[in-house]
Design brief:
Helices cover 47% and strands 12% of the residues. The chain is an alpha/beta fold. The chain has a three-stranded parallel β-sheet with strand order 1-2-3, with helices on both faces. Strand 1, helix 3 and strand 2 form a beta-alpha-beta unit.
């Protein structure tokens, strides 16, 4: 979309406390995707998240970034190399980075998934998102043990 940082009204460490607050966040997300301009800020948004994790001085057993994108990347000149650099930066920041593609133009998502196994996942059926997130956490847990 048109921004690498969509303000949803949720501050780090202050999660929505009840269904009403969670619904408010979901509505803001839905409104954004319906009204945003075309474009792709996936790389910039992930870079910003990695930079924030690197600067965060709080102690943590593990840090995670879950990026969700539509994988329409070729038209914006985004390559697997961009994501390889982001994964390397995240590792230096002691952060597990996962990219979840929820749509794909042709086989773009598959190509990225093949180039970055265990880091890029494709989920074209929304009902399988919970299982895919579980795979991501299992990948992070097994990587932490190495």
């Amino acid at each position: 979309g048109d921004s690498d940082n969509v303000e949803l009204g949720v501050e780090f460490g202050h999660l929505p406390r009840n269904d009403k607050e969670r619904l408010s966040v979901i509505r803001k997300m839905n409104s954004h995707v319906q009204m945003c301009d075309s474009g792709d800020t996936t790389v910039q948004a992930i870079r910003k998240a990695v930079d924030q994790m690197a600067r965060d001085g709080r102690e943590a057993d593990a840090r995670y970034i879950f990026a969700v994108s539509d994988a329409n990347l070729d038209q914006y000149g985004i390559t697997t190399g961009h994501f390889e650099q982001l994964v390397a930066s995240a590792m230096r920041a002691n952060t597990h980075l996962f990219i979840l593609f929820i749509a794909s133009m042709g086989d773009q998502a598959k190509h990225f998934e093949e180039k970055l196994p265990g880091k890029v996942f494709t989920c074209l059926d929304k009902t399988s998102i919970p299982k895919t997130l579980k795979k991501m956490f299992l990948a992070a847990a097994s990587a932490s043990k190495m």
